[in-house]
C-alpha cells in the first residue's frame, strides 16, 4: 500500500467528539494523523459513539496485526490479507460505503465490536456485499456452516459437523450476518442516506432466525440419529415476533413443535434443537406450547387441535394469530397453521373472552415496576405492547367476518384495520409512526451490547441518551439539543400510544353513530356490536343506542360528548357492568341538561371523570343518589390535600344536617331537608368506598353518624311541631336509645336503625300537678309513631327503617315506656337475649340526661355483678345454636351468608357479647358498644390470644365489607354473597377486590371466615 502524506491540518480530538485522554494516542496507533485521513476522521466523528468506535478499531488492528499472513476461507477467520491492518486501512480510505458501515456499527455496538475484534476477517463481508442476501441465500449459508445436506423427504437436513464445533461455527456465521444487517441499518448515521425500512429489518432478522432454526435442527438430526435416516415429520412453527416476521435484533424466538409421530425420537430432536439453537443464536422458547412448560414438547397435529378445542385460553389463541412455519417439515407446519387459524378468528365469541383479555392487560401492566415504567418501551405505559395488544384484539374481534385482517404483522394489520374502517386513518398513521420509532429505539438498545433489553437510559444520563439519539438518526442543531429532541420525541410518541385504547376501540364506534366527519369510514352496525361485545358490553345493541342518544344532533353538547366518550367508554370497560354504567351515564347526562357545569367539569377534570365512570359501572346503588344529589359529582375531583370525597368532617356534616332541618317549621319539610343532606352524604361515602378511599371502620362510622343526625333532626322537628299545634309544653322528656349496629356505631348501607324509645314525665313546680306516667307514655308514643311514620314514608331514597322490635315484649309491647317501667321489666321479666341486646345500647337522640339515666339503669343488668352464671351461659349457647339452625333463610348458603353464616357477623358479635357478659363486671374496658373496640380490649386484657382476636377482627371486617358491597353492587340490601358469575364479580369489585378472578375473592372469604368460626367454636365450647 503506498504511503499516505501526513501533511496538512486535521480536526482536533475535541471537534471529533473524542473526549478520552488517550484518543490522540489511539489515532496515532492507527496512523490517522495526516491530511489524507480527514475523510475517515470526519466519518469517525459522526459515529454514534466516536470514542467506542476508535477503541474498537485499535482492537481490530491489534487482532489483524497479530494474525499474520492471510489464512482461512472467509468464514470469520482472520483473513487479513497482505499487510493485516493495511488492507482494512486502505479500504476505509477508499470505500465510503465500507467506512460508513464499519464505523457506524462499531460506534453503536460493543457486542458486534467484540465479534470483529475476535474474528477481524469479518470486516470483508461489509465490503463484499453490496446488498443484503435473500432468504434462500441466508439459509444456504447457515446450513453450509455445518456442511448440512438434505435428509429424507420432509424438509430436514443432516449436518456433518456436530458438538461444540458446530455451535461455534453457527455462532460465528450468524454473527457475521447480524453484523452485515446492522451495518447496513446503521450506515445512514454517517452517510446521511436513507436507511433500511423498519419492516425490512424485521423480515431479514426473521429470515435469519428461520435459517438458524433449520441449521440447529440439522445438527440435532446428526446428533440424535447417528447414521439412521429420519422418517418422522417434524415442523417448527414460529410464534410471536418471529412468526410475524417482525423480529428484534436480540429476542427470544417462540416456537411450537408438530410431529408425526410425536414419539421419543421427535421429542429428542426438538429438545436437541432447542439446546443447540439457544447456545449458538438466541433463546429458543417452547413455553407457548399446549399446557406450557408442563406439557409435552412435541404433539401430533390432532393432539394440538384437541387441546385448542377444549382447553386453550384466550391468550393462547392470541399467540396463534402469528403462527408461521419456520423450519423442518414446512408442509406439516402449513397444515397446522391452516387448522388452528379458524379457531383464532372465533376466539372472541368465547364466554370468557372479555375477562381473560382484561386479565391479560392487567398482568402486562403489573410486569413492570412503577419506578421504571416510564423508561420501559416494551411493557410500560404508552409502550409497544400497548399497540400490539390493541391491534391483536381488534383483529380477533373483527377477523371472523373480515378476512382482510388475517395478517401476522402488527403494522400490516394496523393498515388493514384502517382500510376497513375499524381504526381512524389518521390514528393508524400516527400509531404506525410511533410504533416504528419505539421499535427503532428498541433495536438500537439491543444492538449496543447484543442483549435483550427494552429499557431507556435514565433521564439524567446525558451521554447514554446522546448515543441513543445519534444511533436512532435523531437530528439537532446542537450537541445538547439532540438529547432534548430525543426525549421530546419519546414523550410525544408515548403520549400518543397512551390514548390508543380510547382511540382505537371507541372512536370508530362514535363515528358510526354521529355525522361529525362525513369523510370518516364507519363501522357497520354488526362490526360495532362485535367491538362493543369484545370490550365487555353484554347488550351491545343497547349500548349503541345510548351512544346515539348521547351524541345526537349537531349541538355543542353532542360534540362535547363525542369528544369525551371514547375515553369515558374505555374507563367504563374496566368495570364489572359497563352496560349499566353507560345507561347510568346517559340518564345522568340527560338529567343534567340544564346544568352546563356537568359536561364542562367532565371535560376539564380527568380524575373526576374517571372516578365517575368507575362508580357508575360498578354500583347500582350510587347512580340514583347522584341523580338527586348531583353536586356530589364536584367532590370526585382532587382538592389541595387530596380527593374532595375525603375532605369531610363527620361532626360538621351532622351539624349541617340538623341545622338545615331546624329551619323548617313543618316536620315533613324538615325531614325532607334532612333526607336531602343524608342522600348527598350517602352518595359521597358510597363513592369513596367503591373507589377504595375509605376503610370499613370509616364507612360504618360515617353511616352511623348520618343515621343519628337524621333521628335527632326528625325527633326535634316533630316535638317542636307538636308544641306549636297544642300550644302546651311537652308533658315528658323523650330519648332514643340506639341498639344493635346503630348503638355500636357500625351501621352498613342496608342496616335498619334498631332503637328503643324511653320517656319520663316532666316534673312541675312544687304544688303544680305533674303529668302521670300514662299521660307521658301516651304523648311520647304519639311522637315516636310520627317520627317513624315520617322517616319510613315511601321515597326514592334508600330506606330509613326505624325498628323498635328489640323493646320489651317485642312487637306486642308498648312502643314507649318510662324509665321506671323499663327497669321493672328488665328486673323481673327480661330474657337472656334481651339482656344481651342491651350490651350495644347507647343514647343517639333526644334528651341526653334521660338517655344517660337509662344507660346507668341498665348497667346492673348488662354488666351483672359477678358476671353471668353457668345456667345463663348454657342458655346463650343453646340460643346461639338455635339461631344457627333456624334463622338462616331457606336456601341460603351458610358458608357465604355474611350475617348468619359460619364466621359471619353474628358469630363474631355473639362471641364478643358472651365475653362481655362474663367479664365486663370486673373489666371496665369491656363496657363498650363497638364490636371492634371491644375485641381490642379483649386482646389487651388477655381473654383471647392475639391471633384469635386477629382472626375474629379480620372476619368481621371482611363480612361487613362484603355485606356493604352487596348493597353497592345490587342497589338493595342482601346478606348472601353470589356463588359465581357476573354478580360475584360485581360484589367482589365493590368490595375492593381487583384481582383477575372474582372466585379468588370468594375463596379468600371462605378461608378467613372458616378460621374465625374455629375461634367461635372454641369460645362457645
TrEMBL record:
Residues 517-1021 are annotated as: Adenylyl transferase. Residues 75-86 have a biased composition (Gly residues). Residues 358-505, 878-1019 form the PII-uridylyltransferase/Glutamine-synthetase adenylyltransferase domain. The keyword Transmembrane does not apply. Its cofactor is Mg(2+). Residues 101-335, 610-856 form the Glutamate-ammonia ligase adenylyltransferase repeated domain. Residues 66-86 are annotated as: Disordered. GO terms for molecular function: nucleotidyltransferase activity. It is an enzyme of class 2 (transferase). It catalyses: [glutamine synthetase]-O(4)-(5'-adenylyl)-L-tyrosine + phosphate = [glutamine synthetase]-L-tyrosine + ADP; [glutamine synthetase]-L-tyrosine + ATP = [glutamine synthetase]-O(4)-(5'-adenylyl)-L-tyrosine + diphosphate. The keyword Chloroplast does not apply. Its EC number is 2.7.7.89, 2.7.7.42. Keywords: ATP-binding, Magnesium, Multifunctional enzyme, Nucleotide-binding, Nucleotidyltransferase, Transferase. Residues 1-509 are annotated as: Adenylyl removase. Belongs to the GlnE family. Involved in the regulation of glutamine synthetase GlnA, a key enzyme in the process to assimilate ammonia. When cellular nitrogen levels are high, the C-terminal adenylyl transferase (AT) inactivates GlnA by covalent transfer of an adenylyl group from ATP to specific tyrosine residue of GlnA, thus reducing its activity. Conversely, when nitrogen levels are low, the N-terminal adenylyl removase (AR) activates GlnA by removing the adenylyl group by phosphorolysis, increasing its activity. NCBIfam families: PRK14109.1. This is Bifunctional glutamine synthetase adenylyltransferase/adenylyl-removing enzyme. It comes from Tomitella cavernea.
Amino acid at each position: 500500500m503506498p504511503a499516505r502524506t501526513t501533511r496538512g491540518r486535521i480536526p482536533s480530538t475535541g471537534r471529533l467528539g473524542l473526549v478520552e485522554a488517550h484518543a490522540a494516542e489511539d489515532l496515532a496507533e492507527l496512523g490517522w494523523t495526516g491530511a489524507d485521513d480527514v475523510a475517515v476522521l470526519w466519518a469517525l466523528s459522526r459515529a454514534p459513539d466516536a470514542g467506542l468506535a476508535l477503541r474498537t478499531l485499535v482492537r481490530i488492528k491489534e487482532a489483524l496485526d497479530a494474525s499474520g499472513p492471510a489464512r482461512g476461507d472467509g468464514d470469520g477467520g482472520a483473513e487479513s490479507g497482505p499487510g493485516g491492518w493495511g488492507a482494512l486501512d486502505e479500504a476505509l480510505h477508499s470505500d465510503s460505503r465500507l467506512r460508513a458501515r464499519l464505523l457506524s456499527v462499531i460506534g453503536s455496538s460493543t457486542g458486534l465490536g467484540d465479534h470483529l475484534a475476535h474474528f477481524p476477517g469479518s470486516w470483508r463481508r461489509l465490503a463484499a456485499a453490496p446488498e443484503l442476501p435473500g432468504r434462500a441465500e441466508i439459509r444456504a449459508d447457515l446450513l453450509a456452516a455445518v456442511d448440512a445436506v438434505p435428509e429424507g423427504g420432509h424438509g430436514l437436513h443432516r449436518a456433518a459437523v456436530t458438538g461444540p464445533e458446530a455451535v461455534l461455527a453457527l455462532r460465528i456465521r450468524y454473527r457475521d450476518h447480524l453484523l452485515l444487517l446492522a451495518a447496513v441499518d446503521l450506515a445512514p448515521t454517517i452517510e446521511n442516506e436513507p436507511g433500511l425500512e423498519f419492516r425490512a429489518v424485521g423480515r431479514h432478522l426473521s429470515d435469519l432466525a428461520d435459517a438458524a432454526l433449520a441449521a440447529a435442527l440439522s445438527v440435532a438430526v446428526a446428533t440424535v440419529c447417528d447414521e439412521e435416516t429420519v422418517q418422522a415429520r417434524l415442523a417448527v412453527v414460529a410464534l410471536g415476533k418471529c412468526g410475524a416476521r417482525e423480529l428484534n435484533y436480540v429476542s427470544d424466538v417462540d416456537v411450537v413443535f408438530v410431529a408425526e409421530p410425536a414419539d421419543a425420537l421427535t421429542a429428542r430432536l426438538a429438545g436437541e434443537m432447542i439446546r443447540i439453537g439457544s447456545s449458538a443464536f438466541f433463546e429458543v422458547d417452547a413455553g407457548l406450547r399446549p399446557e406450557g412448560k408442563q406439557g409435552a414438547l412435541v404433539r401430533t397435529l390432532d393432539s394440538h387441535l384437541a387441546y385448542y378445542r377444549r382447553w386453550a385460553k384466550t391468550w393462547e389463541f392470541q399467540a396463534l394469530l402469528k403462527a408461521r412455519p419456520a423450519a423442518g417439515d414446512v408442509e406439516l407446519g402449513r397444515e397446522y397453521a391452516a387448522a388452528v387459524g379458524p379457531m383464532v378468528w372465533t376466539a372472541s365469541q368465547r364466554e370468557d373472552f372479555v375477562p381473560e383479555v382484561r386479565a391479560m392487560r392487567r398482568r402486562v401492566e403489573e410486569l413492570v415496576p412503577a419506578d421504571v415504567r416510564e423508561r420501559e418501551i416494551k411493557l410500560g405505559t404508552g409502550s409497544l405492547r400497548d399497540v400490539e395488544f390493541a391491534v391483536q384484539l381488534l383483529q380477533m374481534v373483527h377477523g371472523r367476518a373480515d378476512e382482510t385482517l388475517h395478517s401476522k404483522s402488527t403494522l400490516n394489520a394496523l393498515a388493514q384495520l384502517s382500510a376497513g374502517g375499524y381504526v381512524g386513518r389518521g390514528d393508524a398513521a400516527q400509531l404506525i409512526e410511533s410504533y416504528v420509532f419505539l421499535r427503532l429505539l428498541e433495536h438500537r438498545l439491543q444492538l449496543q451490547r447484543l442483549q435483550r433489553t427494552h429499557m431507556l437510559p435514565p433521564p439524567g444520563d446525558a451521554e447514554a441518551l446522546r448515543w441513543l439519539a445519534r444511533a436512532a438518526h435523531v437530528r439537532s442543531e446542537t450537541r445538547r439539543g439532540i438529547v432534548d429532541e430525543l426525549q421530546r420525541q419519546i414523550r410525544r410518541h408515548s403520549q400518543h400510544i397512551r390514548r390508543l385504547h380510547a382511540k382505537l376501540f371507541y372512536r370508530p364506534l362514535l363515528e358510526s353513530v354521529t355525522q361529525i366527519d362525513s369523510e370518516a369510514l364507519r363501522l357497520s352496525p354488526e362490526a360495532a356490536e362485535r367491538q362493543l361485545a369484545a370490550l365487555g358490553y353484554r347488550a351491545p345493541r343497547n349500548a349503541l343506542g345510548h351512544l346515539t342518544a348521547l351524541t345526537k344532533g349537531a349541538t355543542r353538547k353532542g360534540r362535547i360528548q363525542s369528544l369525551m366518550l371514547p375515553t369515558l367508554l374505555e374507563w367504563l370497560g374496566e368495570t364489572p357492568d359497563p352496560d349499566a354504567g353507560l345507561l347510568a351515564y346517559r340518564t345522568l347526562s340527560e338529567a343534567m341538561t340544564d346544568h352546563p357545569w356537568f359536561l364542562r367539569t367532565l371535560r376539564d377534570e380527568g380524575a373526576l371523570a374517571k372516578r365517575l365512570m368507575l362508580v357508575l359501572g360498578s354500583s347500582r346503588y350510587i347512580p340514583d343518589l347522584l341523580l338527586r344529589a348531583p353536586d356530589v359529582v364536584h367532590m370526585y375531583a382532587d382538592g389541595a390535600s387530596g380527593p374532595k370525597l375525603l375532605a369531610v368532617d363527620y361532626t360538621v356534616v351532622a351539624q349541617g344536617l340538623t341545622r338545615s332541618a331546624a329551619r323548617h317549621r313543618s316536620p315533613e319539610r324538615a325531614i325532607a331537608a334532612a333526607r336531602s343532606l343524608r342522600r348527598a352524604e350517602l352518595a359521597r361515602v358510597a363513592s369513596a368506598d367503591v373507589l377504595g378511599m375509605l376503610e370499613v371502620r370509616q364507612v360504618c362510622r360515617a353511616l352511623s353518624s348520618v343515621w343519628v343526625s337524621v333521628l335527632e333532626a326528625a325527633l326535634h322537628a316533630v316535638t317542636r311541631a307538636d308544641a306549636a299545634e297544642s300550644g302546651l309544653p311537652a308533658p315528658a322528656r323523650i330519648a332514643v336509645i340506639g341498639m344493635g349496629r346503630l348503638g355500636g356505631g357500625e351501621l352498613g348501607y342496608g342496616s335498619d336503625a334498631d332503637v328503643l324509645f324511653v320517656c319520663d314525665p316532666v316534673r312541675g313546680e312544687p304544688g303544680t300537678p305533674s303529668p302521670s306516667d300514662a299521660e307521658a307514655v301516651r304523648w311520647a308514643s304519639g311522637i315516636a309513631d310520627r317520627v317513624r311514620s315520617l322517616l319510613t314514608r315511601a321515597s326514592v331514597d334508600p330506606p330509613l327503617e326505624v325498628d323498635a322490635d328489640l323493646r320489651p315484649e317485642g312487637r306486642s309491647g308498648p312502643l314507649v315506656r318510662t324509665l321506671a317501667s323499663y327497669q321493672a321489666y328488665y328486673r323481673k321479666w327480661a330474657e337472656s337475649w334481651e339482656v344481651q341486646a342491651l350490651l350495644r345500647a347507647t343514647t343517639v337522640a333526644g334528651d341526653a340526661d334521660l338517655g344517660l339515666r337509662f344507660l346507668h339503669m341498665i348497667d346492673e343488668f348488662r354488666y351483672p355483678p359477678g358476671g353471668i352464671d353457668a345456667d345463663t351461659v348454657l342458655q346463650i349457647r343453646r340460643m346461639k345454636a338455635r339461631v344457627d339452625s333456624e334463622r338462616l333463610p331457606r336456601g341460603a348458603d351458610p358458608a357465604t351468608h355474611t350475617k348468619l353464616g359460619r364466621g359471619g357477623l353474628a358469630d363474631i358479635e355473639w362471641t364478643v357479647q358472651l365475653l362481655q357478659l362474663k367479664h365486663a363486671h370486673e373489666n371496665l374496658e369491656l363496657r363498650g358498644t363497638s364490636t371492634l373496640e371491644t375485641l381490642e380490649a379483649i386482646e389487651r386484657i388477655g381473654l383471647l390470644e392475639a391471633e384469635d382476636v386477629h382472626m375474629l377482627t379480620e372476619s368481621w371486617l371482611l363480612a361487613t365489607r362484603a355485606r356493604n358491597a352487596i348493597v353497592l353492587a345490587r342497589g338493595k340490601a342482601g346478606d348472601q354473597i353470589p356463588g359465581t358469575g357476573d354478580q360475584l364479580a360485581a360484589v367482589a369489585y365493590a368490595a375492593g377486590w381487583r384481582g383477575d378472578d372474582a372466585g379468588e375473592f370468594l375463596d379468600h372469604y371462605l378461608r378467613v371466615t372458616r378460621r374465625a368460626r374455629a375461634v367461635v367454636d372454641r369460645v362457645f365450647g
